[in-house]
Design brief:
The chain is 74% helix and 0% strand. The protein has two domains: 59 residues, Homeodomain-like (Arc Repressor Mutant, subunit A), CATH 1.10.10.60; 149 residues, Tetracycline Repressor, domain 2. α4 crosses α6, α4 crosses α7 and α5 packs parallel to α8. The protein has 214 residues and is mostly helical.
Length: 214
């Protein structure tokens, strides 16, 4: 048996872990039921059984609590992205990663809404949020490094992809009354990448790797 002091320390650590898990699970359940707009600390106190000061002791404030919930859910996304087989074509890899991310967002509309809220700071290095960004950005970054696209084109492609995915993820959540086509996500992402592929192919035929003078 561990010494009394060590045993007490283990009990306190277990208690902290149990408390955090209970609070996070209750927060997750409340957001699933009522979304971000319907979430309140008062409802959380009633649901989890811990007082507001105790909750703030573990998570500092409401934004810190919601950040922890999103971070945990993003870990699931990162595992899914990391488990994908590597593809030799960066465009194919970008397409696959984009579809996985979009499906995650569609399955988790409240968490997706939270990750798109304005933040005072960028995701910390090593966080699930930053790792997800790095994984999603890598294929297009490879196109830049191999001189298949320029930096300005990378920015345009990234923003157009973001705008496309955001609409495909968000609209079904805000307009569930609409009869959305089952193949809309895949067809839209394919069309976007096909357009850029045509641009790459035409540039190759012209013998250049970037737009001169840009």
């Amino acid at each position: 048996m561990p010494p009394p002091a060590q045993a007490a320390q283990l009990r306190r650590a277990r208690h902290r872990d149990d408390a955090r898990r209970t609070i996070l699970s209750a927060t997750e359940a409340l957001m699933a039921e009522s979304g971000y707009a319907g979430f309140s600390m008062r409802a959380l106190v009633e649901r989890c059984g811990y007082s507001a000061p105790t909750i703030y002791h573990y998570f500092t404030d409401k934004p810190g609590l919601l950040e922890a919930v999103v971070e945990e859910k993003l870990e699931d996304l990162v595992k899914e992205l990391e488990g994908l087989p590597a593809e030799s074509d960066p465009v194919d890899q970008a397409r696959t990663l984009s579809l996985v991310f979009a499906r995650w967002g569609i399955r988790n509309p409240t968490h997706y809404h939270l990750i798109n809220q304005p933040r005072d700071r960028d995701p910390s290095p090593g966080s699930a949020g930053q790792r997800a960004v790095d994984l999603l950005s890598k294929p297009l970054g490879n196109l830049l490094q191999s001189n298949q696209i320029t930096e300005s084109e990378l920015e345009i492609i990234s923003q157009s992809l973001w705008a496309c995915l955001h609409g495909l993820i968000s609209l079904p959540a805000v307009r569930p009354d609409k009869d959305w086509s089952p193949g809309l996500l895949e067809a839209s992402v394919d069309a976007l990448f096909r357009g850029w592929l045509d641009e790459f192919a035409s540039r190759t035929r012209q013998g250049g790797s970037g737009h001169e003078g840009q």
